[in-house]
Amino acid sequence: MNGQRRRGSWEPAPAARWEDAFLTGNGTHGAMVHGRTHDELIVVNHHLLLRPNGGENALAPDLAVELEHLRDAVLTGRAREAVARHVTAPLQWVRPFHPALALRLRRPAAPVGSYRREVDHRTGVVATRWDGRRAETFASRADDLLVHREVRTGDVELTHHWQLDGAPADLGVRTRAQTGPDGAVLRTDVRHPGGSGFGYTCWTHVRATGGTLHAEGEAIRAEGCAEVLLLTRVHPWEDPQPPAPPGHDHPELLQRHLARHTPAYDRVDLDLGAPEEHRALPGSALLADPAKHRPALLERLFDAGRYHLLSSAGVLPPRLTGLWTGSWDTAWSGALTCDANLNLQVSSAAAAALPEVSHAHAAFVARQLDDWRSNARRLFGLPGLVAPAHTDGRSGHAYHYSEDYPLHLWTAGAHWLLQPLLDHVDTTGDTATDRELVSPALAETADFYRAFLTRTGPDGRLLLVPSYSPENTPLGADSPVSVNAAMDLAAARHTLTATGHHRLADRLPPYRLNSQGALAEWAWPAAVDDQQHRHLSHLHPVWPLGEINPLDTPDLAAAAHRALHLRGSENHSAHGHLHRALIAARLGDPDLLGEALDAVLHGRFFHPSLMSSHYPALDVYNADAAHTLPGVLIEALLHSTPDRIVLLPAPPAHLPRGTVRGLRTRCRTTLTTLSWDTAEGRIDAVLTADTDRTVTVHHGTDPGRPPLRLDLRAGHPTPLHLDPAWS
């Protein structure tokens, strides 16, 4: 799409830490390239590589007989006592994600000049160049393997280096090297401790042009070769063994990969008019002075965020760390955390034209449905679906919980995880995914609520009890478990309405306003809001649902806006700041969105790799900021429903002018081009619909500003020129 501007990043020195390594991935395999010229490490990852800890066979607790007792206890202020009966063992984390090993490439030591390491987002290739030599790595989307090529680097020794940060000393490791007529193979088998039978195998097939290959113990040496090609695959023993690598040469492997990666990446482009001299800087220089380089930095982070999101979505959607880690001690087990983080990370998938991410999310949900059914039966004795708050990607059983974090009683999870797929279906018209997964799963979620909603309050309204607002606790309460959490209300109401159960939905209580006129986190007078919390679960009806919005429900939108302003940032986690920004965009508040962006840009959340951290000052490697930031920028520029398009709902001062191309809307219409200049009040846009349809187009979220009504013809670009006279 954009052949003019390079879309990638670069650094003038090798990565000092694994967190700084440039990334490549195909949704299953990933690599972290340090870019060292003498003793290179390329960390190899596999999305499904997990360390056994007992969670592989864990189920949700069998608490069905406890449900009515628990409800009585919650309604009479004895929730903690009742929940304590469930907690008979220490908190059981899901199985931890970990790296496989590293490809260690030792080259002859020599002086280094003209050094540059770079990642090309359009190709997915990470390259290191020095003194006319180069090494290149990519994760093939076509052939599901890691491809590494050495050109003019002299002699190279290859080993499998498994002693990475935090690796257990009692791993059972065996490495064998052998040569044959087609090259050489380095194979490492790793058995997890304890005789569990869990482990994995990593193969690296070596092909050489010219020169010779030698197997020496646990190493392969390439001598006098013009080019060396390494093809690496990981096989978790829980999965069927993969086929041998294809026999293609490097140009064909690369072209097969590019045919899938580049068209997907090129669908969307953001141009903020950054100076070319800023665009030419390394990522670390842009990060060092965000205020000076803001347009170039936001362009770079937008491009990198889409790249990392696409690269980490395949067999699964992204984990807390995408699909990368260089440590066996990954924070929070490197899980897929479903009560906030996962949905934030995939927030841009539909609008940013990445159906590959939505398909990964759909496959993840489909594989877990039987476990979600088991959760509903075991926890509540009911039909339907109950999703876990944490999952290792393989198991969907809800066994991660404690008294302080009773995540097993969170009932909104299935609806929350289906919501990105509802957006995908609206955006793409993907009837197969809707027919085979989304609609049936939503119907099963409705079955759960129909069976669950049996208690009523004094006003005759149905009660959601037990109810949990992740991961918060009402002020002064003895337990996080309460009644009528706003998130649960929104999920139940939307699920029942979407599946035709309007009468039952109408019996749910309305949202409650607290004493400050803000949307309350619990529609239950005894539950007092704790505003110093990182989660914003109670604003689920604003984002992503859109049930509350300034155009249709201005009074509730004002209450939600008040709630957003009252909420603190607690520990300044990246997901909290960007969740706030997404909600601010829906409420038409560019200033609050800009403040949240500034907190991330100025808080040192981004490594030179442009992957992010969970906390400020590069504390805890985590993909939340990297993957969510593109969604924030898109929401500032565009919001849509199946029959409405809102242009520039909340453009902050960070985005005074620019052009974005290729965004998708829930009207099944592409925003082929959007150019804006807020100082002049000018908006130029081109809309191209997939099918004939009528849409309304709004400039901003002011309900007093009348919209335009457009009749769009399929495949025919419709230009719009909007100026300050539009009122």
Walk me through the topology.
Layout: E1 8-11, E2 22-25, E3 29-33, E4 39-46, H1 67-75, H2 79-84, E5 101-106, E6 116-120, E7 125-130, E8 133-139, E9 146-151, E10 156-161, E11 172-180, E12 183-191, E13 199-209, E14 212-216, E15 219-223, E16 227-236, H3 250-265, E17 269-271, H4 276-279, H5 283-288, H6 294-312, E18 336-337, H7 341-345, H8 355-380, E19 390-391, H9 413-428, H10 431-452, H11 486-498, H12 502-506, H13 554-566, H14 574-586, H15 590-601, E20 613-615, E21 619-621, H16 624-637, E22 638-641, E23 644-647, E24 657-664, E25 669-677, E26 682-689, E27 693-699, E28 708-712, E29 718-722
Parallel strand pairs: 23-27
Antiparallel strand pairs: 1-6, 2-3, 3-4, 4-5, 5-10, 6-7, 7-8, 8-9, 9-16, 10-15, 11-12, 12-13, 13-16, 14-15, 17-24, 18-19, 20-21, 22-23, 24-25, 25-26, 26-29, 27-28
Helix pairs in contact: 6-16, 8-9, 8-10, 9-10, 10-11, 14-15, 14-16, 15-16
- CATH fold assignment of the largest domain: Glycosyltransferase
Helical amount? 25-40%
Question: Please, what is the oligomeric state?
Answer: single chain
What do the pLDDT scores average to? Answer: 95
Tally of discrete structural domains: 2
> Reading side by side through the largest sheet, how are the strands ordered?
1-6-7-8-9-16-13-12-11
Count, helices: 16
GO molecular function: alpha-L-fucosidase activity
Protein name: Glycosyl hydrolase family 65
Domain Glycosyl hydrolase family 95 N-terminal: 10-234
Organism: Kitasatospora cineracea
